[in-house]
């Protein structure tokens, strides 16, 4: 076997092992993310950098959907447009909070164990 053939086989094996290790580490990282997920409601007034928003939406678009319908739409608002929407939503809630209805129930009715 020539030195070239040996080098080619060696690099191929190395590449395969590296690919497998990368795949395993990616799976484990995702597993840790899913298992470690917790609801966080510690909001701040600090704006989220637009690059972070783009990254989140880029990843979220890959989420599976029933029959691959991908029924979501997303709008990112900043500046004056965001301020107008937030002001309108707050006013609508303040003016109508007694008559607003949920679009869908969050919990089954009646609630079943273990929620009782």
UniProtKB/TrEMBL annotation:
SUPFAM superfamilies: FMN-dependent nitroreductase-like. Residues 34-95 form the Nitroreductase domain. Gene3D superfamilies: NADH Oxidase (3.40.109.10). One of its GO terms (molecular function) is oxidoreductase activity. InterPro entries: Nitroreductase, Nitroreductase-like. PANTHER family: NAD(P)H NITROREDUCTASE YDGI-RELATED, NADH DEHYDROGENASE_NAD(P)H NITROREDUCTASE XCC3605-RELATED. Belongs to the nitroreductase family. This is Nitroreductase family protein.
């Amino acid at each position: 076997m020539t030195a070239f053939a040996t080098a080619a086989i060696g690099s191929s094996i190395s590449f395969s092992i590296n690919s497998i290790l990368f795949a395993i580490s990616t799976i484990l990282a995702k597993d840790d993310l899913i298992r470690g997920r917790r609801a966080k409601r510690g909001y701040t007034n600090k704006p989220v950098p637009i690059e972070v928003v783009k990254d989140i939406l880029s990843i979220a678009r890959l989420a599976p959907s029933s029959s691959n319908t991908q029924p979501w739409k997303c709008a990112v608002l900043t500046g004056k447009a965001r301020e107008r929407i937030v002001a309108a939503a707050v006013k609508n809630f303040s003016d109508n909070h007694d008559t607003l209805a949920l679009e869908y129930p969050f919990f089954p009715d009646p609630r079943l164990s273990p929620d009782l």
